[in-house]
């Protein structure tokens, strides 16, 4: 890409918006994932009894839904990102492309 | 029976429970089984199908782009399945279900680690990779930098990851197929090596992708059926399944001498919560980092993002890949509990010593027989073989592209190699890698190589990921910084792994507790070292090259964000 074209695109308000919104969104979800996973790992490292505690009168423990929850969360959070990026962010970048290449 | 302990070591390496102590639970010796004809016939069917696909793919593989990326014409959904097929190894299927059968909840903790890297890869890397790269992740890392040093670094990182991953797969393939099919170890290794060479050599990325897609479908279908049958037996009540498993484990504990009923009940209930898998917080975090960021630095996975036509499809690929892999880990958990109640209670699956015939890694295989009879047993054995093939083909292709695209075309020919000669070099490399993999697979048969897959993840997290991340996201990063930091991460992760208990004590045979580096994974330390190295050296870099590197950031960022100028799918 030529430097002049890059500078022109970089000055486009749509580009600024795309870059800052996507970056904020991506990092927010990244931090959420880190908190959930390392929270889970550290919970086990420091207090195994929390997850081993029974939920009711049966053998089911809190650890099972929490562990499955981490897996479901991982899939959901990926889905949330991809959904927004493939609609809202892609529309923005289409706009930027049309603007830059006309 | 041949040296069961050594063979068990090899299988354990493949099943790659990189955490000490945990691995010991998974390792079991196995005897060669009687030749399993149902499995061999089904596997032959798979091979014939994939060879037809390879023939079809070969007709389409004309240029370097076809060879490395299937011409960029794979859809997001197909690529998602192929990524899942690349990632779900026989180790995850057999090893994790065995771990769940032995220690219950710990197996779940272990599998979660392999899943959590995918969102990170999605949020920070996937679309940027697609927008900047062409054939290899080095295209992205070297986008604005001096080509030669970065390519040499990236090719070293790729080849180290591929070599260790490949050896672990080959050794595991030999041991596993010996167990499942009753073939000799060396025959199994040669069969895997030859088939993988044929796929990659003639069919390139197109054939590799379809082998991975078919394998993913078969594995997901087989695992779904097993989990369904287990849940069906319990009227789809998780509580009923868990209660039965706890009862089985309690009875097993009570059968041991000098066990009070209270102790037996506690041992039974222990499978429902965390056990010994996570010990100290530093090991836990370090190991988690290796898995999480290693996923985003595995060259054969990163390469798959160049096979789709756009950033949108790249995102869809990870979405599907994450969904399938997550679903698969949920299934393995149910399969592991099914193995407790169906397999551990059935004398037909137990030897005279009360242990599983063929070792604990046969948990899922025995369960297949318990829920689906001999034909389904043959199916699952054939799927395990197919699984190995799909993984090694992807690895070989990635190693070949590092040599031909990064080293030959860019470093040696200065970017002026024509497509035909680049293609020739990749094919020669594929043959060399295949031969080396077979030789090393046979040479390492009797070695304890439990560290190899965790080393591959540690190097990917500590060398490939930091360089990729900083080159794409940090404007002040320079060639010198990336190379110095990258090699710091590479060397420190390898050295610390050698000094850790899994190599120092388990492989080199020094006494227990003598390992100079006491933690299970080096990633926490080697990743910090790599990032610090990149940051400090880049900050201090005032060379002329550094000015070019920094000036290149804006055009790179614009392209990575918008996809303007990104390489298009080739027309077919």
Automatic annotation (TrEMBL), chain A:
PANTHER family documented for this protein: INNER MEMBRANE PROTEIN YJCH (PTHR38598)
Source lineage: Bacteria, Pseudomonadati, Pseudomonadota, Alphaproteobacteria, Rhodobacterales
Name of a matching Pfam family: DUF485
Keyword Transferase: no
TM ranges: 25-46, 58-82
Protein name: DUF485 domain-containing protein
GO cellular component annotations of the record: plasma membrane
InterPro entries in alphabetical order: DUF485, Inner_membrane_assoc
Native source organism of the sequence: Amaricoccus solimangrovi
Keyword list, A-Z: Membrane, Transmembrane, Transmembrane helix
Keyword Disulfide bond: no
UniProtKB/TrEMBL annotation, chain B:
Protein topology in the membrane: Multi-pass membrane protein
Keywords: Cell inner membrane, Cell membrane, Ion transport, Membrane, Signal, Sodium, Sodium transport, Symport, Transmembrane, Transmembrane helix, Transport
Transmembrane segments: 39-59, 80-102, 108-126, 152-173, 185-204, 216-234, 282-303, 324-344, 375-404, 425-444, 450-474, 481-499, 519-537
N-terminal signal peptide: 1-23
UniProt KW RNA-binding keyword: no
Pfam family name, one: SSF
Subcellular location, principal: membrane
Cross-referenced InterPro entries: Na/Glc_symporter_sf, Na/solute_symporter, Na/solute_symporter_CS, Sodium:Solute_Symporter
Keyword Iron: no
A GO molecular-function annotation: symporter activity
Domain of life of the native organism: Bacteria
One of the record's GO cellular component terms: plasma membrane
Alphabetical GO biological process terms: plasma membrane acetate transport; sodium ion transport
Subcellular location: Cell inner membrane
NCBIfam families, per the entry: PRK09395.1, sss
Family indicated by similarity: Belongs to the sodium:solute symporter (SSF) (TC 2.A.21) family.
Record's protein name: Cation/acetate symporter ActP
Species assigned in the record: Amaricoccus solimangrovi
């Amino acid at each position: 890409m030529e430097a002049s074209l890059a500078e022109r695109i970089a000055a486009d308000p749509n580009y600024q918006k795309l870059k800052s919104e996507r970056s904020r969104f991506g990092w927010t979800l990244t931090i959420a994932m880190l908190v959930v996973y390392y929270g889970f790992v550290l919970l086990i490292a420091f207090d195994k009894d929390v997850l081993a505690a029974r939920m009711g009168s049966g053998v089911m423990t809190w650890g099972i839904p929490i562990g499955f929850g981490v897996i479901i969360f991982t899939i959901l959070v990926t889905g949330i990102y991809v959904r927004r990026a493939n609609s809202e962010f892609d529309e923005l970048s289409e706009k930027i492309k049309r603007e830059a290449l006309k | 029976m041949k040296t069961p302990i050594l063979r068990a070591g090899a299988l354990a390496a493949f099943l790659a429970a990189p955490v000490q102590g945990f691995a010991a639970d998974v390792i079991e010796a196995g005897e060669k089984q009687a030749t399993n004809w149902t499995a061999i016939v089904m596997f032959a069917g798979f091979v014939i199908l994939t060879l037809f696909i390879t023939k079809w793919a070969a007709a389409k593989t004309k240029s370097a782009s076809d060879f490395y990326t299937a011409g960029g014409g794979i859809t997001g959904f197909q690529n998602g399945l192929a990524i899942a097929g690349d990632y779900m190894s026989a180790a995850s299927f057999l090893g994790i279900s065995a771990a769940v059968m032995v220690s219950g909840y710990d197996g779940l903790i272990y599998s979660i680690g392999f899943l959590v890297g995918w969102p990170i890869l999605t949020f920070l890397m996937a679309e940027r990779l697609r927008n900047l790269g062409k054939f290899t992740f080095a295209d992205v890392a070297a986008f604005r930098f001096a080509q030669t040093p970065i390519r040499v670094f990236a090719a070293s990182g790729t080849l180290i990851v591929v070599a260790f991953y490949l050896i672990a797969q080959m050794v595991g393939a030999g041991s596993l197929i010996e167990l499942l099919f009753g073939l000799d170890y060396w025959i199994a290794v040669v069969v895997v090596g030859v088939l993988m060479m044929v796929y990659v050599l003639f069919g390139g990325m197109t054939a590799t992708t379809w082998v991975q897609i078919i394998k993913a479908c078969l594995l997901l279908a087989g695992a779904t059926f097993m989990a369904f049958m287990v849940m069906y037996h319990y009227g789809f009540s998780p509580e009923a399944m868990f209660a039965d498993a706890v009862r089985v484990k309690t009875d097993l504990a009570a059968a041991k001498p000098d066990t009070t009923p209270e102790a037996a009940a506690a041992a039974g209930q222990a499978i429902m919560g965390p056990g010994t898998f996570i010990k100290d917080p530093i090991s836990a975090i370090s190991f988690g980092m290796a898995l999480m960021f290693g996923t985003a630095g595995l060259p054969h996975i990163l390469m798959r993002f160049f096979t789709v036509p756009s950033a949108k499809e790249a995102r869809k690929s990870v979405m599907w890949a994450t969904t399938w892999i997550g679903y698969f880990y949920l299934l393995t958990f149910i399969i592991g509990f099914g193995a407790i109640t169906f397999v551990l209670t059935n004398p037909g699956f137990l030897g005279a010593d009360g242990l599983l015939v063929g070792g604990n890694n046969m948990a899922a295989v025995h369960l297949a027989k318990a829920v689906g009879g001999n034909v389904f047993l043959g199916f699952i054995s054939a799927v395990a073989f197919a699984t190995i093939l799909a993984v090694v083909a992807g690895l070989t292709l990635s190693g070949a592209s590092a040599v031909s695209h990064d080293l030959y075309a860019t470093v040696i020919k200065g970017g002026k190699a024509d497509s035909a000669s680049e293609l020739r070099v990749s094919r020669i490399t594929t043959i060399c890698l295949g031969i080396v993999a077979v030789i090393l697979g046979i040479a390492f048969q009797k070695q304890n190589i439990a560290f190899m897959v965790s080393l591959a993840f540690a190097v990917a997290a500590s060398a490939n990921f930091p360089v990729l991340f900083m080159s794409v996201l940090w404007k002040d990063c320079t060639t010198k910084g990336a190379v110095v930091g990258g090699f710091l991460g590479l060397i420190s992760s390898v050295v610390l792994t050698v000094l850790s208990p899994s190599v120092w004590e388990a492989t080199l045979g020094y006494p227990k507790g003598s390992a100079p580096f006491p933690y299970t994974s080096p990633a926490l330390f080697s990743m910090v070292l790599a990032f610090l190295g990149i940051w400090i050296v880049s900050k201090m870099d005032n060379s002329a090259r550094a000015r070019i590197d920094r000036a290149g950031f804006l055009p790179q960022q614009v392209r990575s964000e918008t996809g303007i100028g990104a390489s298009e799918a080739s027309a077919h």
